[in-house]
User: What shape does this take?
Amino acid sequence: MRSRLVLWPLLALVLVGATVVPRQEPIRPIEPVVVTDPALVELGKQLYFDPRLSRSGFISCNSCHNLSLGGSDNLVSSIGHKWQQGPINSPTVLNSSFNIAQFWDGRAADLAEQAEGPIANPAEMAFTHELAVGVVATIPGYVAAFEQAFGPGPIDIARVTKAIAAFEETLVTPNARFDRWLLGDDAALSGEELAGYQVFRTSGCTTCHNGPAAGASSFQKMGLVEPYRTENPSQGRIAVTGEEVDRFRFKTPTLRNVELTYPYFHDGAAGTLTEAVDVMGRLQLGRRFSKKESAQVVAFLRTLTGDQPSFVLPQLPPSSDATPRPQPFD
Amino acid sequence: MRSRLVLWPLLALVLVGATVVPRQEPIRPIEPVVVTDPALVELGKQLYFDPRLSRSGFISCNSCHNLSLGGSDNLVSSIGHKWQQGPINSPTVLNSSFNIAQFWDGRAADLAEQAEGPIANPAEMAFTHELAVGVVATIPGYVAAFEQAFGPGPIDIARVTKAIAAFEETLVTPNARFDRWLLGDDAALSGEELAGYQVFRTSGCTTCHNGPAAGASSFQKMGLVEPYRTENPSQGRIAVTGEEVDRFRFKTPTLRNVELTYPYFHDGAAGTLTEAVDVMGRLQLGRRFSKKESAQVVAFLRTLTGDQPSFVLPQLPPSSDATPRPQPFD
Assistant: This one.
């Protein structure tokens, strides 16, 4: 699905004979999405915003991956069912289709598999797949929308998460100033920002933060040169592979829209970009950035904010008399 | 502000020499809103969706008055800070500018005064006005937007709530099928729906459910003919007036979009329209509707669903390094 989505604009460039060749840099431009299945995406958008996928009727995908807030919740760790504290910082949903895998430890292969997780996690939406499907299947507006998107057949969790994933695949953020610079617009970056990118690139940040998402393409050890000290108990990818080498390896987060997705790191411990740049320099690269270099890198990072997804707030189809009611307090 | 908003369309009708005179019925059509101050409304929309007005950084106006769900949360009572259970059902924000006063007991005179309440209520958003203003005033995007909307001068809670109220005044729902019928379109209602309206009107429902909001214009005793039994401790308007006559008097809710705003009554005890119609008939009118009459009234009530507010999901300006961070778990 991903490749189908991104190929169209490239193809269009070729067809019109455009000669724009992006600068050869480790970070690649993000292409706008071309929606090929609008009915599926529209259904997924509704489900993404629907708190009835949670036991309480209060928590939706958008609660922790808030599309008004850069696809994150801007909290150190999220709030789940009955105000339980989440174990890890919620990563942004923006550009998540570029991720090598989903979750910080990569335990889900793709967006549809990821979407299964929070619905049934007792500390998050605290529902079950069966109950969530039972709610959706009693809402006439959803029954019609699923039939339009998938054709005949019963609603099941696979269709629910496939629709949510199809919507999430549209949540890319092209047209960042850095992308415009990559595509040849010399005036898109200031001298300060360009200097910041040179510090970023020559210091080795692009070893991990590369590709269209400026990250998200590999698992890396947090605390490579110096150990990272945190009270967060997450052990990273070892939870998936069982391999000791994967202890404290996490998916490198995307730097796209990083100005919007504070606080930073899997434990949300860095509240500002300045702090995050300092910690990354010391712990991953063995380098102390000067105050001037740090300010330059932060200025560069702010050029990675792209066009945010823009759409009309979805209206959700009302429950019927047969729809099970939420149970927030039992 | 209210009158300015509604007069324009009427004036327009006069100016073009239109001769549409609504049918003379106790329920009046809703006029579309003409926005006279788009900068103020846009700012109010951002604040309405911004969870940073709460101590936790998780609860916004839209959490309990969800504009994807008919301006309500579809819960018996709402979820507040640290998952506290609200004392009363959250009324819809849709058409709330028509309300005689705000809250079930009318303790706020207008929408701006209402908006002050939940921000500082320890069981709801659990913030203070000072802290909320302190957050907003450190966000550069808001500083610019307030200056654009209000001109120079400090941000204070009065400006915050005035902006939110200006947005809420736009949340009217014209063009319901019942409105089209009121305006002369005989085909807008089915025979069943029209029969339902006749039952509704001749039974006396319009004594309280009248005007453009089909309610919201008076305080009435819940349990007029037969007492209403509930475990909800709210005593209604007596909390405001101290007058014994106001015990168990509540603001009559609007019936606009009632198909979307379940569950019903101040205690949220009626889960379906059928149940609500039955209870209202017996307790307020001393009347047991037949199954046929009840189905007709419910069919009529569903014709009160109007055009839902349609707007692009707002993007919220990011916090600065100086912005105090949310405290969800302390």
In short: Residues 157 and 221 of chain B are 34 Å apart (CA to CA).
